[in-house]
Design a protein that fits this description.
alpha/beta, 40% helix
């Protein structure tokens, strides 16, 4: 594998930690889970190999990136703009896991001419919404507050307070649940890789029920397809079923 180079990219009131393998291959930009760092993509990158240019970055207060006063979804969209501009990328394949999948839909909707295609890893347009949903999310993160510094060191948490973690998740659930129209109008190819079963904070088959919301969208938009349904759960999909993500990226090679 070509050695990656490291960069610090300023945006708004912060700096993002970015890695880029460079080269002349088609750029693939990886969009992390809500609190995850870029380390989770290692197996996918190894599977794809040197034929691609691999660009990863840590979102604000995740991984090595610095803190910010703004952890909103719109700020994350600006971060992707900043990374692509700084690395001179005009068009790319986007690969987004969970939060990163939703981010990819919205960025592709706004910038279709700059997207070759999009691989979405276990994200779907559903969420816990309204006052009851927000209360459930906030309760979960407050209960986890003592564990969050540990999860941050393991690449699965942010350097944020419990309430800031909750704010990110509450906003994501509202945006995700309202994203059906975004998916229905996407004009670039999208391939989904879906996990199985519940995950942290979900229960009673909620995740599989959410995944089923994709069926009518796939039926209506010919640009969207399900590349694979795998046995691992939401948290383990990149480590246990990376070959399925690799195959989905390769499906997009035919598009220009």
């Amino acid at each position: 594998m070509t050695q990656q180079r490291q960069y610090w990219i300023p945006v708004d009131d912060t700096e993002l930690y970015v890695t880029d393998t460079g080269g002349s291959g088609r750029p693939v930009v990886y969009l992390n889970g809500a609190y995850a760092d870029q380390s989770h993509w290692r197996k996918v990158i190894a599977g794809l190999g040197d034929g691609y240019r691999h660009i990863r970055y840590d979102e604000r207060a995740r991984g090595k990136s610095k803190r910010s006063a703004d952890y909103s979804f719109e700020a994350c969209l600006r971060d992707l703009d900043a990374v692509l501009a700084a690395r001179g990328v005009e068009r790319a394949i986007l690969v987004g896991w969970s939060y990163g999948g939703v981010l990819g839909w919205h960025w592709a909707d706004r910038n279709p001419e700059r997207v070759v295609g999009l691989v979405t890893v276990d994200a779907f347009p559903v969420g816990l919404t309204g006052p009851e949903g927000a209360a459930r999310i906030r309760k979960l993160f407050r209960r986890m507050r003592l564990l969050l510094p540990i999860t941050a060191r393991l690449g699965m948490g942010a350097r944020m307070s419990a309430d800031e973690h909750a704010d990110v998740n509450i906003e994501l659930n509202e945006i995700g649940a309202a994203s059906v129209p975004v998916l229905q109008r996407l004009t670039r190819p999208v391939r989904f890789v879906l996990a199985t079963g519940d995950s942290l904070g979900s229960q009673d088959g909620e995740m599989d029920e959410g995944r089923s919301t994709l069926d009518p969208i796939v039926a209506r938009n010919p640009n969207i397809g399900i590349s694979a349904r795998v046995a691992s759960n939401h948290s383990k999909i990149l480590s246990k079923d990376s070959p399925a993500v690799v195959a989905a990226v390769r499906e997009l090679d035919q598009f220009q």
